[in-house]
Amino acid sequence: MATQTLITGAVLIGAIALFIWDRLRVDLVALLVLIALLGTGVITESEALAGFSNRTVISIGALFIVGGAVFQTGLADQIANRILKIGGTSYTRLLLVLMLFVALMSAFISSTGVVALLLPSIIRLAAKARLAPSRL
Protein backbone atom coordinates (compact mmCIF):
# COMPACT_ATOMS: atom_id res chain seq x y z
CA MET A 1 0.00 0.00 0.00
CA ALA A 2 2.83 2.42 0.78
CA THR A 3 4.33 1.83 -2.67
CA GLN A 4 1.07 2.71 -4.38
CA THR A 5 0.82 5.87 -2.30
CA LEU A 6 4.33 6.91 -3.28
CA ILE A 7 3.68 6.19 -6.95
CA THR A 8 0.42 8.14 -6.85
CA GLY A 9 2.15 11.07 -5.14
CA ALA A 10 4.95 11.06 -7.70
CA VAL A 11 2.47 10.96 -10.58
CA LEU A 12 0.49 13.80 -8.99
CA ILE A 13 3.62 15.92 -8.58
CA GLY A 14 4.55 15.17 -12.19
CA ALA A 15 1.07 16.18 -13.36
CA ILE A 16 1.24 19.44 -11.43
CA ALA A 17 4.65 20.15 -12.93
CA LEU A 18 3.29 19.50 -16.43
CA PHE A 19 0.32 21.78 -15.75
CA ILE A 20 2.67 24.55 -14.59
CA TRP A 21 5.06 23.96 -17.50
CA ASP A 22 2.07 24.39 -19.84
CA ARG A 23 3.69 22.76 -22.87
CA LEU A 24 1.19 19.91 -23.10
CA ARG A 25 -2.56 20.25 -23.33
CA VAL A 26 -4.48 19.52 -20.15
CA ASP A 27 -6.26 16.53 -21.68
CA LEU A 28 -2.95 14.96 -22.67
CA VAL A 29 -1.59 15.38 -19.16
CA ALA A 30 -4.73 13.73 -17.78
CA LEU A 31 -4.30 10.80 -20.15
CA LEU A 32 -0.62 10.51 -19.19
CA VAL A 33 -1.64 10.34 -15.53
CA LEU A 34 -4.16 7.62 -16.34
CA ILE A 35 -1.58 5.65 -18.34
CA ALA A 36 1.05 6.05 -15.62
CA LEU A 37 -1.27 4.84 -12.87
CA LEU A 38 -2.47 1.96 -15.05
CA GLY A 39 1.04 1.02 -16.13
CA THR A 40 2.36 0.95 -12.58
CA GLY A 41 -0.53 -1.18 -11.36
CA VAL A 42 -1.97 1.41 -9.01
CA ILE A 43 -5.34 1.10 -10.77
CA THR A 44 -6.87 -1.73 -12.77
CA GLU A 45 -8.11 -1.58 -16.35
CA SER A 46 -11.73 -1.47 -15.22
CA GLU A 47 -10.97 1.37 -12.81
CA ALA A 48 -9.13 3.26 -15.55
CA LEU A 49 -12.08 3.02 -17.93
CA ALA A 50 -14.84 3.51 -15.35
CA GLY A 51 -14.75 7.30 -15.59
CA PHE A 52 -15.49 7.29 -19.31
CA SER A 53 -18.91 5.72 -18.73
CA ASN A 54 -19.92 8.44 -16.28
CA ARG A 55 -22.75 10.64 -17.55
CA THR A 56 -21.00 13.79 -16.36
CA VAL A 57 -17.92 13.05 -18.45
CA ILE A 58 -20.06 12.38 -21.51
CA SER A 59 -22.05 15.58 -20.90
CA ILE A 60 -18.92 17.69 -20.62
CA GLY A 61 -17.55 16.14 -23.81
CA ALA A 62 -20.80 16.94 -25.59
CA LEU A 63 -20.64 20.47 -24.19
CA PHE A 64 -17.28 21.02 -25.87
CA ILE A 65 -18.62 19.71 -29.18
CA VAL A 66 -21.73 21.90 -29.11
CA GLY A 67 -19.72 24.94 -28.01
CA GLY A 68 -17.25 24.42 -30.84
CA ALA A 69 -20.07 24.07 -33.34
CA VAL A 70 -21.73 27.27 -32.09
CA PHE A 71 -18.43 29.08 -32.49
CA GLN A 72 -17.54 27.62 -35.92
CA THR A 73 -20.94 28.20 -37.52
CA GLY A 74 -21.09 31.86 -36.58
CA LEU A 75 -24.09 31.39 -34.31
CA ALA A 76 -22.04 32.80 -31.42
CA ASP A 77 -21.58 36.06 -33.33
CA GLN A 78 -25.26 36.27 -34.20
CA ILE A 79 -26.36 35.73 -30.61
CA ALA A 80 -23.74 38.20 -29.35
CA ASN A 81 -24.87 40.83 -31.85
CA ARG A 82 -28.53 40.46 -30.85
CA ILE A 83 -27.75 40.73 -27.15
CA LEU A 84 -25.42 43.67 -27.81
CA LYS A 85 -28.15 45.40 -29.80
CA ILE A 86 -30.58 45.09 -26.88
CA GLY A 87 -28.14 45.64 -24.00
CA GLY A 88 -25.71 48.09 -25.54
CA THR A 89 -22.22 48.28 -24.07
CA SER A 90 -23.34 49.08 -20.52
CA TYR A 91 -22.20 46.37 -18.14
CA THR A 92 -25.36 46.55 -16.05
CA ARG A 93 -27.72 46.41 -19.03
CA LEU A 94 -25.79 43.57 -20.65
CA LEU A 95 -25.86 41.59 -17.43
CA LEU A 96 -29.59 42.14 -17.06
CA VAL A 97 -30.29 41.10 -20.67
CA LEU A 98 -28.07 38.03 -20.27
CA MET A 99 -29.81 36.99 -17.05
CA LEU A 100 -33.22 37.28 -18.68
CA PHE A 101 -32.07 35.43 -21.80
CA VAL A 102 -30.49 32.61 -19.77
CA ALA A 103 -33.57 32.33 -17.54
CA LEU A 104 -35.81 32.09 -20.60
CA MET A 105 -33.63 29.44 -22.23
CA SER A 106 -33.31 27.47 -18.98
CA ALA A 107 -37.06 27.11 -18.86
CA PHE A 108 -36.93 24.96 -22.00
CA ILE A 109 -33.52 23.25 -22.08
CA SER A 110 -31.08 21.95 -19.48
CA SER A 111 -28.52 24.18 -17.82
CA THR A 112 -25.74 22.24 -19.53
CA GLY A 113 -27.31 22.98 -22.90
CA VAL A 114 -27.61 26.66 -22.07
CA VAL A 115 -23.93 26.79 -21.12
CA ALA A 116 -22.92 24.96 -24.29
CA LEU A 117 -24.92 27.33 -26.44
CA LEU A 118 -24.11 30.62 -24.74
CA LEU A 119 -20.52 30.33 -23.57
CA PRO A 120 -18.99 31.08 -26.99
CA SER A 121 -21.54 33.86 -27.50
CA ILE A 122 -20.74 35.48 -24.18
CA ILE A 123 -17.03 35.41 -24.96
CA ARG A 124 -17.73 37.16 -28.28
CA LEU A 125 -20.12 39.57 -26.60
CA ALA A 126 -17.54 40.52 -23.98
CA ALA A 127 -14.93 41.16 -26.67
CA LYS A 128 -17.30 43.38 -28.66
CA ALA A 129 -18.38 45.30 -25.55
CA ARG A 130 -14.75 45.55 -24.37
CA LEU A 131 -15.55 43.80 -21.09
CA ALA A 132 -13.80 40.93 -19.37
CA PRO A 133 -15.70 37.69 -20.10
CA SER A 134 -15.38 36.73 -16.44
CA ARG A 135 -17.54 39.71 -15.48
CA LEU A 136 -20.45 38.48 -17.56
UniProtKB/TrEMBL annotation:
Where it sits in the cell: the answer is: Membrane
Look up the record and report any one GO term of the cellular component aspect.
plasma membrane
Q: Which Pfam families match?
A: CitMHS
Q: Would I find Acyltransferase among this entry's keywords? A: no
| Keyword terms, alphabetized | Membrane, Repeat, Transmembrane, Transmembrane helix, Transport
Q: What is its main location?
A: membrane
- Name the domain of life: Bacteria
Q: Where is the Citrate transporter-like domain?
A: 16-135
Name of the protein in question: Citrate transporter-like domain-containing protein
Where does this protein come from, organism-wise? Candidatus Thermofonsia Clade 1 bacterium
